[in-house]
Amino acid sequence: MKIIFQRNPPISSVRHEFHSACTSITPQFWLSNLNSFHNSLSINLKVNAGFQVICSSNLSSEEIMLKILNRRWTLMNPDTKIHQIKVSSLQTQQNFGSLGKKNTYSNNPHPSLGENIRKWHDDESSFYIVRDDLLHPLVNGNKARKLDALIPLVEDHLGTDVVTCGGCQSAHAAAVAVSCAERGLKAHLLLRGEQPQILTGYNLISMLYGSVTYVPRSIYANREELLSSHANSIGGSVVSLDDLLKASSNHNSMKSNFIDTEKEWSSNSKKTIIINEGAGDAIALPGLIRLVQYLSQDHILGKDQPLKIIVDAGTGTTAVGLGIGVLCLGLPWEVTAVMLADTTEGYKKKEQSLISELCRCFDLPMMHTGIVNWVERQHPRKFGNVLKGEIEACQQIAQETGVLVDPIYTLAGWELASQLSQEERKGGAKVVMLHTGGTLGMFGLAQRYKSYF
Ligand SMILES: Cc1ncc(COP(=O)(O)O)c(C=O)c1O
Fold it and tell me: What sections of the sequence does the record tag as coiled-coil (predicted)?
């Protein structure tokens, strides 16, 4: 029998017995049979159009969480800071003398949490912001969460090289390069387009920490083939993350087709791992589920208070990870994602495929889809475009609160969070925005949109 060697095996390798029975059923059937699912995964969601398949299981939500979270992590602990942003609406004089409204903000960096979240009443609107942008100088926000479980998986399987891809200013590519370099792994980054004359922002970080190849847009369009042919050109064996994950969960059965020879697993051979664009892989999800578990502790956000969690969506992986965490823990939270790079249909497909992949890889009962509320941005546009006035909006937020947001991603979350915070005052759920990082994105934008700065 072949064995997967692990540098640092997880603390315990408990395998749980469970029985699953997959059925395609209607929401009505499911609701009327809710009681019969007692002792199984607790599901606490409103039923919507995305709701498709449920499989019952004898696994409790604790067992499911254990299956997903019992692993080695990159972050020593999942802790993060939470600030409270107060939002005030001011009447302003606009062009041609008409009156308009403008928000101003202030930041309370030490808000009372736990029980006090429920008690807190004020005349002002406010939202909480999870400051994941402060996790690391270069690997922060959702990048840190996505790589939290991913990098140890690569290490455990003796990966030597990693290949990934992204835009020229990809925060993901830079985060992979930095994380790999910190662990003695080699990162190969395939960046879309031509090399800029002057490197800056994430592009500069990618060049400093990784091995960058610029790829013409026409070739980049077929990313899957690009990743795999580049990985093959490095030499040694090539493995996808999903295969690694499946091998970790199935290491008894050893059915994985990538474990061809013992030689491939020897510690001195090259092994290249492919990470999809934006780490849109199932192994990116546990880090976000871990974050939800952290936030749901009684002394932080608690488990009983209805909350609206706001996040910006590129591939949508971060939002889906949060949604799964909320589902598994049975929290009365709703994850709302601002769509930036795809259509509702595209995001729903991504949600479905990530959930299926996670359940397959972790040997879990299928969960249903429809766990994320996908919404349009206030001012929709082609992905990556910046509209007039948005740099000034980021500047205002930075100067009033000390929080840096960027117009491509985090400003979209901020706008929605401040809009919803006004509804919260009228009795809506409390609003919590996840800062997804991307701080250095501004450097690339200053280069691209010179006239705006
Ligand atoms: C700052 C920032 N926010 C959000 C996202 C989108 O995250 P996701 O692809 O998981 O939706 C990205 C992309 O990686 C990003 O760089």
Answer: none
C-alpha of residue 278 to centroid of ligand 1, in Å = 7
Distance CA 288, CA 358 (A): 13
Q: Which has more pLDDT, 91 or 450?
A: 450
Q: pLDDT for 359-393, tens place per residue?
A: 988 888 877 779 999 999 999 999 999 999 999 99
Which of 381, 306, 327, 312 shows the shortest CA–CA distance to 68?
Answer: 327
280's tokens: 């849109």
Q: Specify the CATH number for 141-282; select among 3.40.50.300, 3.30.450.370, 3.40.50.1100, 3.40.50.1390.
A: 3.40.50.1100
Largest CA distance in the chain: 80
Domain boundaries, the chain: 141-282
Q: Which pLDDT score is estimated for 444?
A: 94
Q: Give dist(CA 24, CA 360) in Å, integer.
A: 17
Please tell me whether residue 93 adopts helix, strand or coil conformation. strand
The pTM of this model reads 0.85
What is the pairing mode between strands 99-108 and 82-93?
antiparallel
Amino acid at 212: V
Question: How far apart are the C-alpha atoms of 294 and 105, rounded to whole Å?
Answer: 27
Report the alpha-carbon distance of residue 307 to residue 310 in Å, rounded: 9
| DSSP category for residue 376 | E
Q: Ligand 1: residues whose CB is within 6 Å?
A: 141-142, 171-172, 278, 312-318, 409-410, 436-438
Name the burial class of residue 98, with classes exposed (0-12), middle (13-18) and buried (19+) by CB atoms within 10 angstroms of its CB.
exposed
pLDDT in tens, 405-428: 999 999 999 999 999 998 877 777
Q: What is the pLDDT of residue 186?
A: 98
Q: Give the distance (Å) from ligand 1 centre to CA of residue 46.
A: 26
Ordered alpha helix ranges (H), 54-157: 61-69, 115-119, 141-156
> Is there a contact between 135 and 80 (Cβ–Cβ < 8 Å)?
yes
With the most atoms of ligand 1 within 8 angstroms of its CB, the residue from 312, 320, 434 to mutate is 312
Phi and psi based region of residue 106 (left: phi greater than 0; alpha: psi -120 to 50; beta: remaining)? beta
Q: What's the rounded Cα separation, in Å, for the pair 164 and 187?
A: 8
Say whether 92 sits in a helix, a strand or coil.
strand
Residue with the smallest CA separation from ligand 1 atom 1 is: 438
Main-chain phi, psi angles of 311, to 5 degrees: -145, 150
E runs forming strands in 120-260? 125-130, 161-166, 186-192, 211-215, 237-240
CA distance linking residue 90 with residue 127, whole number of Å: 18
Q: Flag the least confident range among 15-19, 126-130, 169-173, 315-319.
A: 15-19
